[in-house]
Amino acid sequence: MSQVAEDIMEISMGPQHPSTHGVFRMDVRLEGERVLRLKPVFGYLHRNHEKIAENASYLAAIPYTDRLDYLCSMTNNWGYALAVEKLAGLAVPERAEYIRVIVAELTRLQNHAGMVGFLLQDMGASGTPLMYAFTQREKVLDLFEELSGARMMCNYMRFGGVRVDCSPEWLRQTAALVAAFGGFLDEFEQLLTGNEILMARTQGVGVLPQELAINAGVTGPGLRASGVNYDLRKVDRYGIYERFQFRVPLGEHGDVFDRYMMRVLEMRESVKILEQALRDIPSGPVMDPKAKVRGLRPKVGEAYARIESPKGELGFYLISDGTPNPYRYRVRPPSLINLTVLEDMCLGQNIADVVVILGSIDIVMGEVDR
Length: 370
Known about the structure:
This protein is an alpha+beta fold. 47% of the residues lie in helices and 14% in strands. The protein contains 15 helices and 9 strands. It has helices spanning 49-54, 62-65, 73-88, 94-122, 128-148, 168-192, 196-202, 210-215, 221-225, 232-235, 256-280, 334-339, 342-346, 351-361, 365-368; strands spanning 2-5, 8-13, 25-31, 34-41, 157-158, 161-162, 301-309, 312-320, 328-332. Strands 1-2-3-4 form a 4-stranded antiparallel beta sheet. Strand 5 (157-158) and strand 6 form a beta hairpin.
């Protein structure tokens, strides 16, 4: 901390979360309690993900994708698998497409529930909202463990399908979780949404204007909270999302409260998607028999594929030179892009609001530093 002028103070703020110790802080200039400047400082968790993948086979890179947004390994797998399938011209069996949608929307449920819990904790609440959210997250992770053998680093999807099929019992357990999730959301909202402290700390705080959100490349719930109707499940219709009826919730003000509500409303839409997918999932194979997973050598070319991950657009850009390793491997991570507007949302705000605004962006450092 340093005093640079009368009533002007510079502080190094953070870490405010155990996972950001040593890898993220904010250099803030204050006039009293008002933010004049804020610089996010990161880069200390860089693990050379992209260069490692360029020196490994296409298959060997899948476990590394688990560790980008380590809360959302299933969707990370899917984004990468789509890029390789596009590059190599591989098809995906219908049953595998349904399984991909199911695990992706389960991922969205547990990510958004956890985000709301962490946001309330950042706001100064006790651990009760977070622990209540984690009751649902644990149920989802139990399903992932039964399906893939791992709770978080699932390494589940493969080019041309998924690694193993799901059992009828797994589908029954998933349907039971989905059927009960609406009741959890009703109670969660009853406890939180109308809470006067939550509204006072979030409404009109950390506003992200629509034009700035678009120009900065912000995606996901943060973009939709600013009123921009852009969801890759609707825009690109990747996988089989065109078969499902769901709406894209939009905010009006682009503040922390709208970003909170986006997560709640999107969880309700994910429940609708899951109900349809579980009802309609067909029987059949889960891997394209023509897919050569090991020793894959795509033809010379390039491909970019993207998905609507829980935090926004997650994209993978690949260049093939005809060898077993990608010549170029590049990740477009939503956490990094969304973080770039943090200063704009914090300028003029009170220092006490900075952590709340950061929490509403919902970043994971493994995706910021690749």
